[in-house]
Specification:
mainly alpha; Ferritin; 5 helices; binds fe (iii) ion
Amino acid sequence: MGWFSKDIATMDDLFVHTLQDIYYAENQIKKALPEMATKATSPALKQGFETHLRETEGHIGRLREVFRLHGVEEQGINCPAIDGILEEANDVASEVQDKPVLDAALIAAAQAVEHYEITRYGTLVAWAKQLGREDCAALLKQNLDEEAATDEKLTQLAMDGINRKAA
Ligand code: FE
Ligand code: FE
């Protein structure tokens, strides 16, 4: 918990805290994706990052709607987990010279990001339902589904790369 986060006493507090965590994370991801697209060599991977940037903007829009529906101010809180994942992605990408290896490193880093989002949205959907917020749960589920689909696409790109190399 950050220095400035108020104490978490109820499930509702915990829900809002986690919403603020993913809101911050999505905004950091939005900043990181253009650079990942620039670094990618494979046109399909480049395109994939660009598509997910637009989806990420949609995720942020849905989160704003969830804040509004739940009657709390839209606000991010520091999320050291996503900062660490993105920092590591940046470090690895800047160290790899070989292009196909760089693409493999970018895919692995992107999947770590997607898996973080999947775990957060999975939890948020469950908690929203528990709190009787079916409206919020439906929006969060849409984000969850897009993260899962992105993760699938990244796996497919990785497999295609491996197959090409093996051929
Ligand atoms: Fe997202
Ligand atoms: Fe994502």
